[in-house]
Specification:
Layout lengths: L2 E12 L2 E12 L3 E5 L6 H8 L6 E6 L2 E2 L5 H7 L1 E4 L11 H8 L6 H14 L1 H5 L10 H13 L5 E5 L7 H16 L3 E5 L3 H7 L2 E6 L2 E7 H6 L1 H7 L4 H4 L1
Parallel strand pairs: 3-8, 3-9, 6-7, 7-8
Antiparallel strand pairs: 1-2, 1-4, 4-5, 9-10
Helix pairs in contact: 3-6
C-alpha cells in the first residue's frame, strides 16, 4: 500500500509544555490506523497538528507533499479532514446548513450536491431531520452529523477524534460499524479513540502514545492480544485482552 500520510519527528509545544515529542507515524491508503493512549498522552494534539490547528516542528507530508506550514483550509482542500472531539456541530444551524458548511472549501457545486446525496444515504436520520437545528439532535445524531459534515469536504483521509465519547453502548456500536463501512467505500481513517478494545478490533495497525511520545506500534491484532500491553498502556484488564 502507498503511504498517504507520513509524520516524522513531530514536536508540539504549548508555551513551556511540550505536548508531543518526536512522533513518527504513517498511514497507508485504505487503512484504519488507531492512535491510542491515556488522556493527556498527546493524541488530540497530534491530530490538530496534522490539520494545522496547532503549529509544530518536524515533517508532515500528505500525498507526498509537505503540509506542516499550510493553513487548515488548504489542508482540507487537499483531502484531509478532522472530526474533532466533542462533535462541535453548529447548534443553531440546521442539519442541512451544517452539511453545506462542510463543503465550504470545495469549488464544485455539482460534486458537493452529489456528496450531500451520498452522506444522507449513509445517515438516513439526517435526511429526516434536515431542517432541524443541530443542537436539538441527540448525542449520537450529532456525532453522525459531525462525520457527515466532514465527508462533505470529499476527504481522502478522515481523522476521527474520540467518536464514541459520551455515547451509549449501542450508539457506539453503530459508529464503529459506520467507520468500517467508510473504509469499505475506500476512505482512509486515522482514529483516536478512548475505547481501545473497539478501536483495535476494527483497525489494521495501531500506535500507542504516552507522555507525548509513540511508545509502541504494530498490527492491531498483535496489540489486542498482548496482555502486558493491554494492561500497562490501554487500560484493558488481562481477562479482556484475549
Amino acid at each position: 500500500m502507498t503511504t498517504m500520510l507520513s509524520i516524522a519527528g513531530l514536536d508540539v509545544r504549548y508555551g513551556a509544555i511540550q505536548a508531543v515529542r518526536g512522533v513518527d507515524l504513517d498511514v497507508a491508503g485504505g487503512e484504519i490506523v488507531a492512535l491510542l493512549g491515556a488522556n493527556g498522552a498527546g493524541k488530540s494534539t497530534t491530530l490538530k497538528a496534522i490539520v494545522g490547528l496547532v503549529r509544530g516542528k518536524g515533517e508532515i507530508t500528505f500525498g507526498g507533499e509537505p503540509i506542516l506550514d499550510r493553513d487548515t483550509e488548504d489542508i482540507v482542500r487537499r483531502g484531509l479532514t478532522l472530526v474533532p472531539e466533542g462533535r462541535r456541530v453548529f447548534p443553531s444551524l440546521t442539519v442541512a446548513e451544517n452539511l453545506t458548511l462542510g463543503a465550504a472549501t470545495r469549488g464544485d457545486p455539482a460534486g458537493a450536491a452529489r456528496s450531500r446525496e451520498e452522506v444522507l444515504g449513509l445517515f438516513p436520520i439526517l435526511a429526516e431531520r434536515a431542517n432541524q437545528a443541530a443542537g436539538t439532535l441527540s448525542g449520537g445524531q450529532q456525532q453522525q452529523l459531525a462525520i457527515a459534515r466532514a465527508l462533505m469536504s470529499a476527504p481522502k483521509l478522515l481523522l476521527l477524534d474520540e467518536p464514541s465519547l459520551g455515547l451509549a453502548p449501542q450508539i457506539v456500536d453503530d459508529i464503529f460499524d459506520l467507520i468500517l463501512r467508510l473504509k469499505a467505500r475506500g476512505l482512509t481513517i486515522l482514529l483516536v479513540e478512548q475505547d481501545a478494545i473497539a478501536a483495535l478490533d476494527i483497525a489494521d495497525r495501531a500506535y500507542v502514545m504516552a507522555n507525548g511520545r509513540i511508545i509502541m506500534s504494530g498490527a492491531a491484532a498483535d496489540l489486542r492480544a498482548s496482555e502486558e500491553i493491554a494492561h500497562a498502556y490501554l487500560g484493558i484488564t488481562a481477562g479482556h485482552a484475549a
